[in-house]
C-alpha cells in the first residue's frame, strides 16, 4: 500500500509554491462558489500566511466577497468594521483585534491576521459599500458577548421594543457567563432559555431587508448575533450529554451562518472559508462518520456539490502555538516528526520539500487508502502524538492538499499568549 501512495505522490505532486502549482490551484479555486481553506493546527504561521495570500487573490482577481472564519461573530465584526473603514472601528487595527480577548485569542489576534486586515482595509478604501470585502466569524461560542452586542444595538434604534432581548439576557444572566453551568441547568433541571432565544431571533430576523444602506450591515449583525446565541444555547445544552451531537450542532450552525451571509450579499456571491481541517474536510471520509458526526465540508458538499472546493493543509514537523489545557497559558511547542506510515510522513518520505497535490482521476488509487492524518487543536500534547491522527481517505476528504515539510509557530499579538517555550 505504501509503495502505491509514494508512487502517486512522486508522480502527481507539484513543487509549492511555483508558477505551475499556483496556476493549477487558482484555476480550480476560481471556478468554485465556496473555497474552503483548512489548517492542521490553530497555531501555525504557514497556514495563515498561505490562506491569506489565496484569499487576497480570490478577492482582488475573482470577486470573492468575504472571508468567513472559525471565530466569534461579535469579535470578527469589530475587525470587519475596521477593514471596511467604518468611523466606529477604533483608532487602528490593534484596537480592532483587541476584541479577540477570549482564550484562545491567538487564533485571530496574531501578526498574520493583522497584515491581512491592513490589506483588506487598503483594498476596500475607494470602493462603494456594496463592493467591499468583509471578514466574519461563524462559530457558536460568543453567547454572552453576542447578547451584549444585541442590547447595545437595539438601544440605539429609536422606538425599538427591547423586551425580547431583555428576557433572553435575564434568562442567561443567572448562569454567570458559564456555558457548562448553563448546559447543566438546561439539561438536568429544565432551566433552559430556548423559548427566549427563538423569540429574540424572530424579532431580528431579516430586518436588514427593510433597513437603509447605511445601517444595513449593522442590522444583519444583530441577527447574526441572535443566531450565534441560538447556536450557543443548543451547543452548551447538548454538550452535557452528547459529544457527537454538540459537534453537529456547532457545524450545522456554521453552515446556517454561511447561508445567511450568502443571502445577505446576494446572487453570485462567492466566499473563502477558513477553518480547521476537521471542519472543512468531508467527515464522511474520516472515522467521524462512524460516530455519527458531520461537518461543514460534508454539509456544503451535500448542498452545493461541485460548487465547493476544499483544500487541506499539513506538515511533517516544526513548532506550533497551543495550550496544555483549555484556558492554560499558550506555549510554543515542538511538533514532532510525523509517525511512520501517516499521510504526512509519506509526503515527507517522497521528498523533504513543500508540495501541492490536486486530487483527480490521476490520483484515483488514493481513493481506497485509509491513512492517519494529523490534527492539532488549541490543546496539544506532543508526547501523546499517536492520538492526534485521524483515519482518513485524503483524496476524498479534500479536493487538494498543500504540504509544508517544516512549519513554525505563528506570532500572537498578546505578550501573554506568546511566552513559554
Descriptive tags:
alpha/beta; 9-stranded mixed β-sheet; disordered C terminus; de novo design (two linked rop proteins); EreA/ChaN-like  fold; 421 residues; two-stranded antiparallel ribbon; 2 domains; 16 helices
Please give a structural write-up.
With 421 residues, the protein is α/β, with parallel strands linked by helices. It is 44% helix and 14% strand. It contains 16 helices and eleven strands. The chain has helices spanning 2-12, 19-29, 45-62, 73-83, 93-97, 111-124, 143-155, 163-173, 179-188, 194-204, 216-239, 243-265, 277-280, 296-304, 343-349, 394-397; strands at 14-15, 34-37, 66-69, 134-137, 271-274, 308-323, 330-335, 355-358, 371-374, 389-392, 400-407. Strands 1, 2, 3, 4, 5, 6, 7, 8 and 11 form a nine-stranded mixed sheet that branches. A hairpin with a 6-residue loop joins β6 (308-323) and β7 (330-335). The longest helix has 24 residues, at 216-239. One of its GO terms (biological process) is response to antibiotic.
Amino acid at each position: 500500500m505504501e509503495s502505491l501512495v509514494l508512487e502517486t505522490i512522486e508522480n502527481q505532486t507539484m513543487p509549492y509554491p511555483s508558477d505551475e502549482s499556483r496556476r493549477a490551484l487558482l484555476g480550480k479555486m476560481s471556478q468554485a462558489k465556496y473555497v474552503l481553506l483548512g489548517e492542521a493546527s490553530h497555531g501555525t504561521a504557514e497556514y495563515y500566511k498561505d490562506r491569506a495570500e489565496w484569499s487576497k487573490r480570490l478577492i482582488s482577481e475573482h470577486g470573492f466577497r468575504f472571508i468567513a472564519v472559525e471565530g466569534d461573530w461579535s469579535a470578527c465584526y469589530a475587525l470587519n468594521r475596521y477593514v471596511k473603514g467604518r468611523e466606529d472601528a477604533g483608532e487602528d487595527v490593534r484596537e480592532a483585534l483587541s476584541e479577540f480577548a477570549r482564550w484562545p485569542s491567538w487564533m485571530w489576534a496574531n501578526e498574520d491576521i493583522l497584515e491581512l486586515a491592513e490589506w483588506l482595509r487598503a483594498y476596500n478604501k475607494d470602493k462603494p459599500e456594496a463592493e467591499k470585502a468583509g471578514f466574519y466569524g461563524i462559530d457558536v461560542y460568543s453567547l454572552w458577548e453576542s447578547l451584549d452586542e444585541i442590547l447595545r444595538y437595539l438601544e440605539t434604534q429609536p422606538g425599538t421594543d427591547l423586551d425580547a432581548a431583555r428576557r433572553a439576557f435575564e434568562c442567561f444572566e443567572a448562569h454567570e457567563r458559564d456555558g457548562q453551568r448553563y448546559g447543566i441547568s438546561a439539561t438536568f433541571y429544565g432551566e433552559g432559555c430556548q423559548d427566549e432565544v427563538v423569540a429574540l431571533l424572530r424579532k431580528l430576523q431579516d430586518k436588514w431587508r427593510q433597513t437603509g444602506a447605511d445601517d444595513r450591515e449593522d442590522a444583519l449583525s444583530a441577527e447574526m448575533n441572535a443566531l450565534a446565541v441560538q447556536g450557543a444555547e443548543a451547543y452548551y445544552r447538548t454538550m452535557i450529554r452528547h459529544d457527537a451531537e454538540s459537534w453537529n450542532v456547532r457545524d450545522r450552525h456554521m453552515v446556517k451562518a454561511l447561508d445567511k451571509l450568502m443571502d445577505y450579499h446576494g446572487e453570485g456571491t462567492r466566499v473563502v472559508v477558513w477553518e480547521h481541517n476537521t471542519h472543512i474536510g468531508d467527515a464522511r471520509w474520516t472515522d467521524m462518520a462512524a460516530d455519527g458526526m458531520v461537518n461543514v465540508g460534508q454539509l456544503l458538499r451535500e448542498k452545493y456539490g461541485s460548487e465547493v472546493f476544499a483544500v487541506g493543509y499539513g506538515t511533517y514537523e516544526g513548532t506550533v502555538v497551543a495550550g496544555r489545557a483549555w484556558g492554560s497559558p499558550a506555549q510554543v511547542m515542538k511538533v514532532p516528526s510525523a509517525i511512520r506510515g501517516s499521510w504526512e510522513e509519506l509526503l515527507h518520505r517522497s521528498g523533504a520539500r513543500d508540495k501541492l497535490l490536486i486530487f483527480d482521476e490521476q490520483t484515483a488509487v488514493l481513493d481506497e487508502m485509509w491513512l492517519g492524518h494529523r490534527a492539532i487543536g488549541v490543546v496539544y500534547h506532543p508526547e501523546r502524538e499517536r492520538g492526534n491522527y485521524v483515519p482518513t481517505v485524503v483524496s476524498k476528504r479534500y479536493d487538494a492538499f498543500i504540504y509544508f515539510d517544516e512549519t513554525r509557530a505563528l506570532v500572537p499579538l498578546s505578550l501573554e499568549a506568546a511566552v513559554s517555550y
